[in-house]
């Protein structure tokens, strides 16, 4: 399996990019959000990839971070969500938005993605709510994967352990806050929901501020 691709962009289409890796071109399907960030033809790019194997086709799907790739795999585990629907959800919300929507049970945000109906959106939230904390704890969304030079362009197998880009400060704070709440004995689901809500209210908050805000949300009412 191909787990990561690094090379030079040959061209970009509406739903995919062709990346040249030492003379071999690989078609990688991406969300519109990723395509808008990846760069222009002639520039170097690197993407984590997931290979979809069917009887009549092989397709590569590309993601700037391992967290986004993991969300893609989880989204596709939901009945009625294929690769196209997964990319639509990730393109509309981004990995942080998907984490927040699922942790908060906000299926309306998921439904906002193109081609996603209310029943599918509800299934996504219901089936993945217990898995959101684990993905959030991976460190959240990171910036675009480090760009490789043309000389260093390689394809790496999925079994290899690629270097994970440094997480964005807010994502790192969410992961640390989630870990702290879990250590305090809160259930993963309720901790993830509180952290997601606190991060939504204050996106630039650091770890201590997120923990304080989440604890206030978890405090008994009345």
UniProtKB/TrEMBL annotation:
Q: Which GO terms describe its biological process?
A: DNA recombination; DNA repair
Q: Where in the cell is it found?
A: Cytoplasm
| Membrane-crossing residue ranges in chain numbering | none
Which GO molecular function, any one, fits this protein according to its record? four-way junction DNA binding
Q: Does the keyword Hydrolase apply?
A: yes
Quote the Gene3D superfamilies the UniProt record gives: 5' to 3' exonuclease, C-terminal subdomain (1.10.150.20), DNA helicase RuvA subunit, C-terminal domain (1.10.8.10), Nucleic acid-binding proteins (2.40.50.140)
State what protein this is by name: Holliday junction branch migration complex subunit RuvA
Query: Region (Domain I): which ranges?
Result: 1-64
This protein's superkingdom? Answer: Bacteria
Show the taxonomic lineage.
Answer: Bacteria, Pseudomonadati, Pseudomonadota, Alphaproteobacteria, Rhodobacterales
Instruction: Summarize the protein's role.
Output: The RuvA-RuvB-RuvC complex processes Holliday junction (HJ) DNA during genetic recombination and DNA repair, while the RuvA-RuvB complex plays an important role in the rescue of blocked DNA replication forks via replication fork reversal (RFR). RuvA specifically binds to HJ cruciform DNA, conferring on it an open structure. The RuvB hexamer acts as an ATP-dependent pump, pulling dsDNA into and through the RuvAB complex. HJ branch migration allows RuvC to scan DNA until it finds its consensus sequence, where it cleaves and resolves the cruciform DNA.
- Indicate yes or no for the key word Phosphoprotein: no
Location of the Helix-hairpin-helix DNA-binding motif class domain:
73-92, 108-127
Major location category of this protein: cytoplasm
Q: How does it assemble?
A: Homotetramer. Forms an RuvA(8)-RuvB(12)-Holliday junction (HJ) complex. HJ DNA is sandwiched between 2 RuvA tetramers; dsDNA enters through RuvA and exits via RuvB. An RuvB hexamer assembles on each DNA strand where it exits the tetramer. Each RuvB hexamer is contacted by two RuvA subunits (via domain III) on 2 adjacent RuvB subunits; this complex drives branch migration. In the full resolvosome a probable DNA-RuvA(4)-RuvB(12)-RuvC(2) complex forms which resolves the HJ.
Q: Name one Pfam family in it.
A: HHH_5
The record's note on its domains: Has three domains with a flexible linker between the domains II and III and assumes an 'L' shape. Domain III is highly mobile and contacts RuvB.
What the record says about family reads: Belongs to the RuvA family.
Q: Got a GO cellular component term for this one?
A: Holliday junction resolvase complex
């Amino acid at each position: 399996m191909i787990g990561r691709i690094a090379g030079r962009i040959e061209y970009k289409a509406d739903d995919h990019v062709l990346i040249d890796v030492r003379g071999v071109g690989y078609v990688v399907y991406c969300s519109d959000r990723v395509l808008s960030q990846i760069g222009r033809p002639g520039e170097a790019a690197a993407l984590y990839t997931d290979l979809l194997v069917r009887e009549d086709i092989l397709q590569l799907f590309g993601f700037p971070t391992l967290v986004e790739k993991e969300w893609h795999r989880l989204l596709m585990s939901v009945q009625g969500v294929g690769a196209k629907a997964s990319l639509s959800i990730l393109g509309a919300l981004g990995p942080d938005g998907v984490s927040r929507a699922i942790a908060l049970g906000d299926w309306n945000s998921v439904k906002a993605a193109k081609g996603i109906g209310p029943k599918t959106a509800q299934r996504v939230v219901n089936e993945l709510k217990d898995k959101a904390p684990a993905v959030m704890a991976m460190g959240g969304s990171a910036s675009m994967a480090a760009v490789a030079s043309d000389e260093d362009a390689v394809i790496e197998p999925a079994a290899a352990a690629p270097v994970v880009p440094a997480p964005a400060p807010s994502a790192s704070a969410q992961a640390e806050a989630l870990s702290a709440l879990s250590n305090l004995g809160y259930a993963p689901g309720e901790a993830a929901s509180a952290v997601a809500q606190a991060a939504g209210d204050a996106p630039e908050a650091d770890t201590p501020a997120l923990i304080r805000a989440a604890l206030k949300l978890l405090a008994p009412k009345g």
